[in-house]
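ARCHIVE CARD
Drawer: 12
Card no.: 0347
Subject: one protein chain, sequence and derived structure
Cross-reference: see card 0346
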Amino acid sequence: MVVGAESLNRIYPGGEDPDTSKPYVMFGGTPYAHVMIPIG
């Protein structure tokens, strides 16, 4: 998880049904926005 990186929040997709096999933005457009990076 990457928190506080506005530039990354603009690069990666988000939305209500993201592809969780790739990095995606969770809670986009809010003060809690962060990039989730799957591992495994």
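Annotation on reverse: The mean pLDDT is 86. The chain is about 15% helix and 20% strand.
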